Amino acid sequence: MSTGTAATGGTAPARLPGVLRLGLSRGWLEIRAFAREWEGIVFTFALPSLILILFAVVFDGMFDTAMPAVDYYLPGLVAMGLMSVSFQNLGTEIAIERDHGGLRRLRGTPMPPGAYFAGKTVLVAFLALGQLVLMLGVGALFFDARLPSDPASWATVAWVFVLGTIACSLLGVATSSLARSAQAASAVVVVPFLVLQFVSGVFVPVTALPDWVLYVASLFPLLWMAQGMRAAFYPDVMAAFEPSGAWDLHMVALALGAWCVVGLVLTLLTFRWKTRKDG
Amino acid sequence: MNDTAIEAVGLTKSYGGSPAVAGIDLRVPRGEVFSLLGPNGAGKSTTVEILEGFRRRDGGTVSVLGEDPGQAGRRWRSRIGIVWQRETMLPKVPVRDLVRHFAGYHPSAHDPDEVVERVGLAAKARALPDSLSGGQRRRLDVALGIVGRPELLFLDEPTTGFDPEARRSFWELIGDLARRGTTIVLTTHYLEEAEALADRVCVLAGGRVRALGAPADLGGRAAARATVSWTEDGGHREVRTREPTRVVAELAARFSGEVPGLGVHRPTLEEIYLSLVSGPAGSGTAGEGTA
């Protein structure tokens, strides 16, 4: 560490601040800024819990699943909630920052690019953990939802949480580049996300889907996140209702791991600090 | 230490075959306030973006603070400051926290609270960026641009949309920075702004330098003929002359007292500028030769 005289004299140049420190500083800034955007809090953070409450109240006793509605929907909605704070949040927010020159401004400072992504990682980790706690809290406190009971199931929740959130975050960063303007961002991000919710077992059981829809949905991470969460939350007998009649956790890990790699490659290939009109 | 802040030789840049910058040479010494003037499409923005390291050049050599901006890294970035033309999005956190955060990017930043004070936002230190007026937003942009103690500051049309009073008080802020030794590159549409702030003015049109000099003698302004006008026999009279003082003295002797309707007029910077940019090579239409 070169401390002391270096900062003041004109002799040795002071050290540039480190990536990790700036990443944490950016993460804190991102969290504070997010907390002031009530629209973001409603649409990306609170909406899944709101849907959980609605489904738990409205659909209870409507289906012969032999499960309370809250237990039936909780794992899928948790998966959706994680995708919301990662994919939807980053996809729209980064597109807006890019279109409104926020990214360009950062690029004009000595902030290392890694610090920006570290800051987003801190933000998403914070929101994703908050999302999980909020949804499980709402389910357990108000509707007496069934939570995983053994350590192995919690371990499944943990790794599906981590892999799924990383995969969706990277997919969100890559998708932000598809939006040519801030206004286009919500259409480019929210519409595909909504479609995925309907074909990935969040609202409708995947076994009810036509085969080709199921195949297409299997190409995206949400279906696997929901399946992984069901494996952790549902009683084991429910595995019979999965497409293959089993939880197939190795396939969940494989698909989500593959999406982490694909998402990283897409992000590295597509990420831009400027818009097209900036040249 | 090198006393040149910016040196560009034979700078060129084309978009889709049409040259935006068609061979520009510039040298800006340290400590100077250097203003780039020109109509839209003259190549101002492209030139500045190349100097800032935001655009690749097609040809020529460029050195900014001793480094090629196209290759420069974080250390170089910490030595320049940029105040962007467009209002850019800022995170929703209070002014002082934002300035403090940006200070953290730099190795030897100013005290953030002092910077907030210097740009005249002390009373707004706890306000969110969205709640600021246009002029206050620009002051915040300047605060973020200077908090890293830059040796060179780029100001891109900083007072567009200001009322005259806000503009004057903004000029004082920039003048203060200049007196502290910051080299400033100012692009502007306002001639009186260049005249008030700049040591030298460079007029660009059609991707080329049309004139370069102190505002007072740009385009031969100091040596240009003055027009002396007066009223005689119920009519307007005027002569164009290089010796307005002698003409006025003769008139004073002839009228033996007050000369009716006496006026002495030298071309304003605006008149010189308009004659420069509407020259034969066209005003901003990039039709000429080399690329």
TrEMBL record, chain A:
Single GO MF annotation: ABC-type transporter activity
* Segments passing through the bilayer: 41-60, 117-142, 154-173, 185-206, 212-233, 245-271
Main location (coarse class): membrane
Kindly indicate whether the keyword Cell membrane belongs to this entry: yes
| Domain of life, per lineage | Bacteria
Record-linked InterPro entries: ABC2_TM, ABC2_TM_bact-type, ABC_2_transport, Nod_factor_ABC_transporter
Its topology with respect to the membrane? Multi-pass membrane protein
| GO process terms (BP) | response to antibiotic
Spell out the subcellular localization from the entry: Cell membrane; Membrane
A UniProt-annotated Pfam family: ABC2_membrane
Q: Which positions fall inside the ABC transmembrane type-2 domain?
A: 39-274
GO CC, one annotated term: ATP-binding cassette (ABC) transporter complex
Keywords of the record, alphabetical order, are:
Antibiotic resistance, Cell membrane, Membrane, Transmembrane, Transmembrane helix, Transport
Is Cytoplasm one of the keywords?
no
For this chain, the family text in UniProt reads: Belongs to the ABC-2 integral membrane protein family.
The protein depicted here goes by the name Transport permease protein
Query: Could you tell me which species this protein originates from?
Result: Nocardiopsis algeriensis
UniProtKB/TrEMBL annotation, chain B:
Any single GO BP term: response to antibiotic
**Quick one: a GO cellular component term?**
plasma membrane
Give one Pfam hit by family name. Answer: ABC_tran
Cross-referenced Gene3D superfamilies, in alphabetical order? P-loop containing nucleotide triphosphate hydrolases
Q: Which SMART domains match?
A: AAA (SM00382)
PANTHER family with a match to the protein in the record: ABC TRANSPORTER ATP-BINDING PROTEIN (PTHR42711), ABC TRANSPORTER ATP-BINDING PROTEIN NATA (PTHR42711:SF5)
* Family, similarity comment: Belongs to the ABC transporter superfamily.
Task: Supply the name of the protein.
Answer: ABC-2 type transport system ATP-binding protein
Organism, as annotated: Nocardiopsis algeriensis
